[in-house]
Amino acid sequence: MHKAYDIVLWGATGFTGQLVAQYLLHQYGTGQALAWAIAGRNESKLKKIRTELGNENIPMIIADSHDRASLEAMVQQTKVVCTTVGPYAKYGDLLVELCVTQGVHYCDLTGEIQWMRRTIDQHHQQAQVNQTKIVHCCGVDSIPSDMGVYFLQKQAQKQWQAYAKEVKLRLTEVSGGVSGGTVASLDNVMEEAKKDPQVQAVLDNPYSLNPVGQQQGNDQLELTETTYDDDFKAWIAPFVMAAINARVVRRSHALNGFPYGEDFRYDEATFTGEGITGWAKAQLTSVVSNALFDPTSFLKKLINPFLPDPGKGPSEKQRENGYYKMVLRGESADGKVLKVLVHGDRDPGYGSTSKMLAESAVCLAKDELPASYGVLTPHTAMGEALLQRLEKNAGVKFSLLED
Q1: Cα 107 from chain centre
Q2: Alpha carbon distance 147, 135 (integer Å)
């Protein structure tokens, strides 16, 4: 069946949605090889976005997330729905359901573990039957982690003809503020966990995104305090995105049939450096990270005024000056080590995330991809094709580090 569009961008009037639209226009133009449209419920706001982008020819679709008929009409017109409308646990259920029933691929920026578990339980099987790819976590959580492990294991195969049995990711450098949407989603997850023991159980299980019956392994829950890392010879602290990233990496591994072995181990943390300075930075990072996960804490209330609201974010200059670096260390069963650097050329929360999401959508619409379907991860849905796009277009580089 012919589709009018390759991609429909749902949520184009929000802060991140505007950045995705800006990127698609700059990178692919309109009415050319990529057919795309912006969608939302407010026509005047969509028109304003077109004016701000300097292009009145971008097609618009009016739909409402609470109106099934209008949302269904939108989904039927496209090969891929790319959505920035969160928290997804509040606004995403119907859209995922319609994409699955219509056989339309889908990508988003969610980091909400409990909602992902729900979409897996409700839609994975039918999405497989309908040959549909539902791909969560297509931003800074969790593409650098998921594709970083993919890249590292590819290098391990080349060098060792074996896979790394343990991988550690350390966020080593970052410049750019946290996303207001991320903060809102975190708050929403914690609120749900307080009310629902099943949600808390999902958060308490490091393997909770794995298929049912495949949720055992050697990994512990995420780091919550300052620790010395002997492998990196430095102090480390909690990494606020570790809970979602690590579960996505484990789901990729499980969906691929555990190629690295069922005893494969993976963890993430923030690298803060050596000596007393490294220790002090780790202590501060630990306090702030733990406060973010406790909406009722005194410290969270104290830092709330300094956190961005959903839909608000850094200036263009701050985004362009932002960047991040992550180092992954892989170790083989016989003690061989290799390290990989993942480097993003914009602030992680918005500049880099918007480019990664846009390229994920284009990848789903245009590229020859693995014959994998269901509720997937970036790695299992798109594999090598996504890696190439990230490096060529999205300013995310993966490289082998020489010791």
Answers
A1: 10
A2: 14
Residue with tokens 């299992």: 380
Supply 352's token pair.
Answer: 């880099």
List helix spans (H) across 161-274: 180-195, 197-203, 242-255
pLDDT at 189: 78
3-state secondary structure of 340: strand
Secondary element (H or E) of residue 5 = strand 5-10
User: How many residues are listed for the chain in this entry?
Assistant: 403
Residue 40: pLDDT above 70? yes
Cα–Cα distance for residue pair 317/68, rounded to 1 Å: 39
Of 170, 329, 144, 165, nearest to 234 by C-alpha is: 170
Is the per-residue pLDDT at 310 higher than 70? Answer: no
| Three-state DSSP state, 398 | strand
Digit-coded pLDDT (tens) for 316-334:
787 888 999 999 999 999 9
Residue-by-residue DSSP string for 223-244:
P-S-EEETTTTEEEE--TTHHH
| CATH of the structural domain 5-139+354-384, one choice from 1.10.10.10, 3.30.160.160, 3.40.1190.20, 3.40.50.720 | 3.40.50.720
Q: SS3 for 50?
A: helix
Which CA distances in Å does 356 have to 60, 144, 147, 395?
22, 9, 11, 9
Rounded-to-integer distance, Cα 121 and Cα 127, Å: 11
Delimit the domains of the chain by residue range.
5-139+354-384, 143-347+393-401
- CA-based torsion, 191, 195, 199, 200: positive or negative: positive
